[in-house]
What does this fold into?
Amino acid sequence: MPIKLDNIDIALLELLIQDGRKSFNQLAREIKTSAPTVKARYDRLVSAGLIRAVSVDLDVGKLEAKTGKRLEHLRGNVVKRHNVKIGKGMIINLSCDYCKGQVSGKPHILKFGTLERFFCCTSCKSLYEEKYRSRINSLK
It folds into this structure.
């Protein structure tokens, strides 16, 4: 079963879209929840692959011509803002962290350290654990 977004997830995403520079404490105050809750939700959304990056939105027009020319090659790599309405109950489609296939039904979850990994089946979870055993053990 893919992850469903709730009101805290939606508020967090909206605030990060507005200003990705805010600390977890600032986000927690605005959402009216605790900072550890905000961090856990952020980590879960990153692990699920919904948040891929918090990026810089440059106003290239404010740069001097010389610097602007040096950064011109970056324009093609800039991610455009998406006009997507985020709503409660939206579902995040997960892909398996081992085979990269789609996770249908309830995901098999491996938690270690502050990370969560999602798998389509117990075989992929076991193979992932075997492949990364030393890294996983170092984070426990």
